[in-house]
Amino acid sequence: MSLPMRQAEGEARTLCVRSVLAILATSAVVSPTNSLADEGGVPFWFSGQYASLAAVPATPGWSLPMQGYYYSGDAAGSKSFSRGDSITLGLKSWTGLLLAQPTYAPEAKVLGGQLALGLGFGYGKDTTVADLSVSPRDIASGKSDSLSGFTDLYPVASLAWNHGVHNWMSYVTGDLPVGAYDSKRLANLGIGHAAIDAGGGYTYLDQHSGVEFSAVAGVTYNWQNPATHYRNGVDSHLDWAASQFLSANWQLGLAGYVYYQLSADSGSGARLGPFKSNVAAIGPELGYAFTIGGLPAYANLRGYREFAATNRLQGKALFATLVIPLGPRKH
In this structure, is the dihedral angle defined by the CA atoms of residues 185, 42, 283 and 20, taken in order, positive or negative? Predict the structure, then answer.
């Protein structure tokens, strides 16, 4: 390839990365919880919600990140889970969600960084099947439960800084338990209790070469579920991604996550003891930059395959993200 052609390709890649940043960085993270309650072995934190460019400062203005999510997982029939007021064996679950998070980034800087504020919510369906379910009401084999409804609400705030190829970000998010939840159901779209999560992240981004790496880590504190008197322990998590911009539009990479519970579950509803859980996952990531109404937009598709799961379901997850700009940046 000739030098002029290499230079043109590098310039196009730089423009592509800048275009993606202009709209992707306007949004914090769409952060729903999984449809399974904490007692079922799944934490508040939605593993995989952060990926490429996670710590890049937002562009001032409004944006609308939209996310489709699908999860399918199961656990061995010999493994017990506390689901609401039931103890289950042989759990399987399928979850589909459509989520949105209107986000606003003000012009004024805070501590020299860019602030972004958002509120996540969604609608979806969860189907859960247990080989055996034991509750105060009955003992049932092959019990199945399905529910469609709204999720909890997820406020989120982030503050990010940039210095050359280095980007840093801090965030705080949480759970407002207003979604579809009933302790007598196996399937739920809310978790039935409040939670708060805080952490920080880093993104390395070379706009000329197109090389990118991001990692976000945090810790979750859970309040007790008043319906079941179950309190999940303190959780830790890490989301990461590494990618390469191949052209003026396409981005290709790998993404993954690690979740590890730091302290034991507690409360009178924790009938299975400490029930500390962990899991890891990895999978491919594909990004595409384009325009909507003359404004830059971005789509991202990534899939994860889980492994090394303890005291939780293990399966596959798929994220399809579309970041919609709601207007040009004000000058």
Answer: positive
Q: Which two tokens stand for residue 97?
A: 């969600």
In the structure encoding, which two tokens stand for residue 122, read together?
Answer: 């969604």
**Residues 262-307 pLDDT 10s:** 999 888 877 777 888 899 999 999 999 888 877 778 899 999 999 9
Task: Specify the 3-state DSSP secondary structure of 22.
Answer: helix
Count CA atoms within 13 Å of residue 236 on its CB side: 6
What residues contact residue 254 under an 8 Å CB cut-off, 6+ apart?
A: 241, 242, 243, 282, 283, 284, 285
- pLDDT digits 0-9 by tens, 222-257: 999 998 888 989 999 999 999 999 988 899 999 999
Kindly write down the DSSP assignment for every residue of 156-192, as one continuous string. EEEEEEEETTEEEEEEEEEEB--SS--TT-S--SS-S
Do 224 and 215 touch, CB atoms closer than 8 A?
no
